[in-house]
Specification:
This protein is of the alpha+beta class and 164 residues long. 68% of the residues lie in helices and 9% in strands. The chain contains six helices and four strands. The radius of gyration is 19 Å and the shape is elongated. The mean pLDDT is 91.
């Protein structure tokens, strides 16, 4: 059977910039997960970066959930679970955009994953929206660990009966 798909790279500079932005913002997202683990596990910044170097989003989320379960209250765990669910959704969307097989099938520009039909290339606007979601998630978790619900719950667990 003849090869039906030809590998392709977008030539549109706006589309290429948007793909790059998603990749960079995903790095920010993963870094926020590492810094949350730093706070929860009481590690130094360098120690956390070294310990979790090379870990993907899924592994970081699982570790964060496991460590938080030992240290934070049920209300904070519910907030963490909500965050994790949204993080999984954004990461899955990013993986589909970045890790799919970008190609031509006839005259159609498609991204092929599992099925043979694929889907159209994402637009710059769709990718910029995804990059914003990843950025917002990173910002949200960073705020939670520095001055929000995660910090408060960790302080309460460390000093029961004392308000943070």
């Amino acid at each position: 059977m003849a090869w039906k798909y030809r590998p392709a790279t977008p030539r549109d500079p706006d589309l290429l910039k948007a793909v790059a932005l998603v990749a960079i913002r995903h790095g920010h997202h993963d870094f926020s997960l590492k810094m949350a683990l730093k706070s929860v596990m009481e590690l130094g910044p360098t120690e956390a970066r070294e310990k979790f170097s090379g870990w993907g989003s899924g592994r970081l989320r699982k570790k964060l959930f496991k460590e938080c379960k030992k240290r934070i209250d049920k209300n904070a765990m519910a907030l963490l679970q909500d965050f994790i669910d949204r993080s999984v959704d954004a990461t899955d969307e990013r993986n589909k955009a970045v890790h799919g097989f970008w190609c031509w099938r006839g005259r159609d520009r498609i991204v092929v994953e599992v099925d043979k039909y694929g889907r159209p290339w994402p637009t710059p606007a769709e990718l910029q929206k995804l990059a914003k979601r990843l950025n917002d998630l990173a910002y949200e978790l960073n705020c939670a660990r520095r001055c929000g619900w995660l910090k408060a719950s960790l302080a309460s667990a460390a000093h029961p009966g004392v308000s943070p």
